[in-house]
Fold:
Amino acid sequence: MKIGIVGLGYVGLPLAVEFAQAGHDVVGVDTSQGRIAAVERGDSFIEDVPDERLQSVSDRLRASTHYDHLRDADAVIIAVPTPLTENREPDLGPLVAAGTSLAGVVGKGQLVVLESTTYPGTTREHLVPLLEESGLAAGRDFNVAYSPERVDPGRTDHTLRTTPKVMGGLTQACLERAVELYSEVCDEIIQVSTPEAAELSKLLENVFRSVNIALVNELAILCDRMGIDVWEVVDAAATKPYGFMRFDPGPGMGGHCLPVDPFYLAWKAREFDMPTHFVELAGEVNQKMPYFCVDRITRALNEHAKPVRGSKVAILGVSYKPGVGDLRESPALKIIKLLSRSGANIAYHDPHVPDLSEHNLTSEPLDSVLDGADVAAIVTAHPDLDLERVVREAPLVVDFRGVTRGIEAPNLVRL
Ligand SMILES: NC(=O)c1ccc[n+]([C@@H]2O[C@H](COP(=O)([O-])OP(=O)(O)OC[C@H]3O[C@@H](n4cnc5c(N)ncnc54)[C@H](O)[C@@H]3O)[C@@H](O)[C@H]2O)c1
Structure:
């Protein structure tokens, strides 16, 4: 098959490589010249795709900014961003742009699959009308399906191939085409009756995580007031062999999905006179966490008779989760902004993030970031962080990830 992938990011690039490895000709289309050039050079910008893997499929994977190359593709998969506007409403701009460009090249017999996370109805109400501008009819002249992506950057125990893939087609024939396509790279396909059911299933997964993270985060704030160790509480509850699923508190939610996707559902629900309380409340609690972290750092400094203004705060880990360099919606950015506003001198250490240009900061080695620091805050604990050394060398350590459990020291404070 010849397969087109629109949007070569965290979702699109691994998918492109997987299809190429399965022996198909793949054309990736992206609006970013830089990304296209990098793919053509065999230079990966996604941590889950090592350069060698990208280079191993160089004879079957082409990349371009031109949609024309998709004209004779058997199938086209769309994986463009679905962000929020400044007012936290769905921004379908990239999806509309991709659909409009695709309308110019979509052909009879083609299959178009949307993978971007979005609210129920997007495929049918937005993408299909755009594609039908071509003069062809969806479900008759070409096929359309929706299949949400479940990739979790940095995860190695579950892969694209071993993670079941949910799929809904505009018609039964659309679904069958999509199942046939994805069977090339996925072991198990879960068929649902409509694109809407598939769209909503993805949002349920993300809302579920967001709500449960908010629950333990709120509990962490309560534990702080009550003088109870929240980690001990979570560890104890997690010993129940049924009816409990562990979620850990932390400095707030990051990444492209959890802080964004639930609001797609909340927005759509309003059309049905339905406020989604759980979604909104979870968002509210999770958004509060960076403020709570700044308050916790401030109190810890105060206990050492130091003000925030003029203190050197060493932030350890700024990406949104361990082992990756993804900064999107990272709570560390908010914490840095709030502390800077209060007059703190910020330095940071993150081997995955060489610089934070918006804050005019570059990552420092651990010894230099700890040198002269008044407090070190563990915001994201990358696997190779030398915790013993941090606790030994910093006069004060605030751990927002619970990774120092097992270390007892008078200069150590945990969430
Ligand atoms: N990152 C994740 O872990 C993850 C997981 C599951 C689902 N998703 C969803 O998948 C979708 C894509 O996310 P991502 O993380 O891969 O985003 P990304 O920003 O990493 O990649 C998207 C790519 O699309 C390109 N693009 C934007 N507009 C375009 C257009 N009109 N035509 C062609 N290319 C265009 C961008 O240049 C970028 O390279 C989103 O809806 C996201 O919610 C992401």
